[in-house]
Amino acid sequence: MKGLGELERSIMDILWAQSTALTAREVGRLIADRDLAPTTVMTVLDRLTRKGFLHRTRDGRAWRYAPAATRDAYVAELMLEALDMTGDRSAALTRFAQAVSGPEAEILRRALTELEDE
Amino acid sequence: MTTAAVLAALATACGLGSWRFTTARWTSRAPKTAILLWQALGVSWGLASTGAMLAFAVQPYGEGVLHGLVSFATGRSPREPWDALHVVAMVAGLTALAVLVAVLLTAGVQTLRARHRHRTLLALISHDDPVLPGVRVLDHPSAAAYCVPGLRSQVVVSQGALSLLSKDEMAAVLAHEAAHVRERHDLVLLPFAALRRALPWSKVVRDAQAQVELLIEMAADDRARRYCSPRRLATALLRFGTAGAMPTPHGMLGVGAHNLMARVDRLLKPVPELPVSLRYGAVALSVTLVTSAPFLWIYQL
Lengths: 118, 301
Known about the structure:
The complex is a heterodimer.
Chain A: H1 4-17, E1 22-23, H2 24-30, H3 38-50, E2 54-59, E3 62-67, H4 71-82, E4 94-95, H5 103-117
Antiparallel strand pairs in A: 1-3, 2-3
Chain B: H1 2-21, H2 31-57, H3 65-73, H4 84-125, E1 127-129, E2 132-138, E3 145-148, E4 154-158, H5 159-164, H6 167-183, H7 185-198, H8 203-224, H9 230-243, H10 253-268, H11 276-298
Parallel strand pairs in B: 2-4
Antiparallel strand pairs in B: 1-2, 3-4
Helix pairs in contact in B: 1-2, 2-4, 2-8, 2-11, 4-7, 6-8, 6-9, 7-8, 9-10
């Protein structure tokens, strides 16, 4: 039995790989862990919906689930924060170093070449 | 009256001191001491400036700031009657204190929320790398290495950083991030970031926050160099600085390059540490600052 976090992850991966919205039963069929109880899949889908990562629409008596945003969009969101480009200068993360552009990058590049040559 | 005057003088001294301190040169030779002094200046300034107003306001009670405020809150009538000036001071002092506390709390909550969101997303989309145990890897071509602080801090690197750096350089970067985690630098940064949000027009606050940001990086570099080659850390810094895979936003380029070179320079050519006497002097000053403001809140001169 996998942890809940692990399960959320694999379910998101399944839904990201699909082009259409899936029902809980369809997700359950695609999941690697066959012994999973259908209610567990429902619970995780519900959790992900409440967290805002999935949208659901009525389809007859079942719900169909689809990702709220693409995987790439979430990666981009994290990277913007990681590179301190969101505009709000909060102290949420501590970053190693920031990239520099223009003539100043040239100075750094020269310093790097010198160091590598030594 | 004396207490209010002394608190006002202390607040002014902290303000002027901070202003002078933003251009101090010795800070890079003793980043930890400098961070301590910045924190002391901040705490002391906050307590002294609000305390000065409140000390004047509760003067009719004649029993010091804290006791005077308690008397005011419990509705006791003062020895001398209120006049307009004292009422104004009371309103101003309480407002300033409330704003300061609210700003700090809001910033704290916002930061925690941002981190929570970041961590949730990481759990969904980052993956482990067998080469780097305990480190989360993000699939993105830009170079990034950072730490999400908290009770269970997480170190994250991007795929771009992995392909940018050599093995030794990556080890140096991870040692640097581990230093941030260990020394809880996020807690150091938080009040300064909050203050900056509260007083966005203040140059001193802006400079102070930038200084503290640089100082914690230097402190982390110092700790990292005990466990890795400082040279590799320096080349890693330069590689990050020149990676520029994403366009950088306006307004912070100059500082960025300058700070980066400052860090590289002190990794390659270590300057002698600050003399012990000076360091102790700075620590003693910090302790005096931090204790004097609460002292003046409690005892009346």
